[in-house]
């Protein structure tokens, strides 16, 4: 387990609660209700409040602004820990830190410093309404600000959030504008229309904006989105959060399968084995599962360490150094996807037909992973890696690479 590092302050560390201990407690609590909540869908309000009260919403915020000063290695491992039992809550928790990274990377210090302080003091949850591929939301300029009108989809965590990161297309020049606004701003309507097969409690539905006033000081324009190598770390933070969610899902599925095999599964009649855990075919599956998990953990943690190193360079970060981080994260994400799909699909081979009972909802691991991975096609990630291997071309910074 990594120790937290904070370049700004190392004082009073003994007085701070251990975030890993807090995350473990939260995971144990969420595990008690995750099956029922997966069936019901909707907003996990009680569980979100548990996260609020835990102090972990300010995990990545430096101590000088009231946060816990975590690095990205530790933050990603905590996202992963929560994902082992509840990938929906891990999703909104991970995106909390993605939204904070967004304001840090895209806006001026007088903007992000104030938002960091308020988030730490007031336990703000940040929701996502950025989704750059959905261009239905437009921004019409007015004196001192803009008027946002339109609709956004895939707005994970928008319900029960205090702040939103929003993207819109300017009506004047077609440029992408990104803003940070209160979720309760007049004209903002968060719609509870998320009903997918997986990630059923991420509230990744729609947000409607009807002539919403957005002030100039709420626009993230300096340096702005993806404008420098340092600001281009934002999509890499997003990709690594998803990687650790995928890995967490795989770890949770693996443990559920292991417990079922040891305690419930029956040996096949022709195996001549006294117990399922002696069956050579089952042992072969678990051996492969383990290799996949161990390999993915190594790549994921290595990628997070490279992200931390790049993050510390701040505006001195160069394009090549940013590209190396992108390659590391893409490699980890490809392996996390493959390992996760293998385990969540083949876990039933080591448990048997009784494990498909609807009440167990063990299929949720596959449903959650499959829902997530389709939003960023694996083939394009692999193609980017091929471009680098053969042509030494780093992935072009976009909101997905």
UniProtKB/TrEMBL annotation:
Question: Start and end of every Acyl-CoA dehydrogenase/oxidase N-terminal domain?
Answer: 41-121
Which residues belong to any copy of the Acyl-CoA dehydrogenase C-terminal domain?
244-376
Q: Which GO terms describe its molecular function?
A: 3-methylbutanoyl-CoA dehydrogenase activity; flavin adenine dinucleotide binding; monooxygenase activity
**Which keywords annotate this record?**
Flavoprotein, Monooxygenase, Oxidoreductase
Q: Which InterPro entries match?
A: Acyl-CoA_DH_C, Acyl-CoA_Oxase/DH_mid-dom_sf, AcylCo_DH-like_C, AcylCoA_DH/ox_N, AcylCoA_DH/ox_N_sf, AcylCoA_DH/oxidase_NM_dom_sf
An example of a Pfam family matching this protein is: Acyl-CoA_dh_N
- Provide the transmembrane region boundaries: none
Q: Which GO terms describe its biological process?
A: L-leucine catabolic process
Query: Does the keyword Flavoprotein belong to this entry?
Result: yes
- PANTHER family linked to this entry: ACYL-COA DEHYDROGENASE, ISOVALERYL-COA DEHYDROGENASE, MITOCHONDRIAL-RELATED
| Record protein name field | Monooxygenase
Q: Which organism is it from?
A: Methylovulum psychrotolerans
